[in-house]
């Protein structure tokens, strides 16, 4: 049935994934941090969140619906692409250390 309601575990999985993805966007500085009301970039935390989602993907492999798999993979891909962009921005704006001669 195409219109089946999500069971409890599907809803819990969707909520967990949504929470992790939202955290990833906050750490990448793409959304306001609700605790500080500021836009802040924390690449270490963003990387940790991406790693957690990747672990979740590995641990649930073969146990997700097609829709869940697509959402997980799309979210992970978007976070990774944005992480790379932010990392490049950070490295570009990093002051160069004086070279020893």
How much of the sequence lies in strands comes to: under 5%
Distance between the termini: 72 Å
Put simply, the count of helices is 3
Share of helix, binned: 55-70%
Q: Round the mean pLDDT to the nearest integer and report it.
A: 90
This entry's quaternary arrangement is single chain
- What would you call the structural class? mainly alpha
Q: List SSEs in N-to-C order.
A: HHH
Largest sheet: none
Instruction: Enumerate the spans where pLDDT stays under 50 for 5 or more consecutive residues.
Output: none
Number of strands: 0
Instruction: Specify the overall morphology.
Output: elongated
What gyration radius follows from the Cα positions, in whole Å?
A: 17 Å
Please explain how this structure is put together.
This protein is mainly alpha-helical and 101 residues long. The protein has a domain at 44-80. 64% of the residues lie in helices and 0% in strands. It has helices at 8-27, 43-59, 66-93. Helix 1 runs antiparallel to helix 2 (43-59), helix 1 (8-27) packs parallel to helix 3 and helix 2 runs antiparallel to helix 3. The radius of gyration is 17 Å and the shape is elongated.
């Amino acid at each position: 049935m195409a219109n089946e309601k999500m069971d409890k575990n599907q809803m819990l999985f969707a909520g967990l994934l949504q929470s992790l993805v939202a955290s990833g966007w906050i750490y990448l500085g793409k959304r306001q941090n609700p605790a500080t009301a500021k836009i802040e970039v924390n690449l270490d935390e963003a990387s940790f969140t991406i790693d957690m989602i990747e672990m979740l993907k590995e641990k649930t492999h073969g146990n997700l619906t097609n829709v869940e798999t697509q959402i997980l993979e799309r979210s992970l891909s978007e976070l990774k692409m944005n992480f790379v962009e932010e990392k490049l921005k950070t490295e570009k704006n990093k002051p160069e250390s004086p070279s020893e001669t």
